[in-house]
Amino acid sequence: MSQVLAIMTNDVEDIEYTSPAEALEAAGHHVTLVEDEANKTLTGKHGTTFTTEKGIDDISVADYDALLIPGGFSPDQLRADDRYVALVKDFFLADKPVFSICHGPQLFIQTGLVKGRTLTAYTTVRPDLYYAGGIVKDEPVVIDRHLITSRTPDDLPQFNAAITKELA
Q1: Which of 60, 70, 88, 103 supports an S-S bond with 16, CB 3.0-4.6 Å?
Q2: Which residues does the UniProt record annotate as the domain DJ-1/PfpI (predicted)?
Q3: What is the pLDDT of residues 41-68, one digit of tens each?
C-alpha cells in the first residue's frame, strides 16, 4: 500500500480530487489530504466539502510515496505559498511519482524544474509550462518518468488508470 499525499485548498475542482482519490483507495493506497492545518474544512468549486487530515507543516516527503495535485482554482492559490512550492520541488528532486491534472501543473512553474519535462495541463496553463521550458502535449495523459499529467475532468478515466498503474 502506497501513501499518497494530496495538496489542495478551497475552490479545487471537486471531481479532480474525488475521482483520483477513489481510484487510488480502491487500488489499496491511502490518500492523505493536506492544507495549512489538520481538520480544516475545504470547499470545492461545486460545493463538495473535504476535511484535511494533516497540516503542511506536519508532513515530510519521506513519509509519502506519491503526490496528487488536483486542479481548479486551488493550485494558483497554493503556488503563492513557498511551503507548497518547496514540497512539490522535493517530490521532483526525490524522483517520486507526481500526479497532476488540469490547473495543477501551475505549481510546477514555481519550482523551476519544468525545463525539459514532458507534460500537459488545462489549455490556458499549457503556454505557461511551455515558456517555463516544458515540452507540452495536448493529450489526455502524458507520462514523463514518474510525472503523470492530464488536461481536464474528461480525461479522468485515463488519468486514474495511469496513476494506479504507476503505484502497482
Answers
A1: 70
A2: 3-165
A3: 999 999 999 999 999 999 999 999 999 9
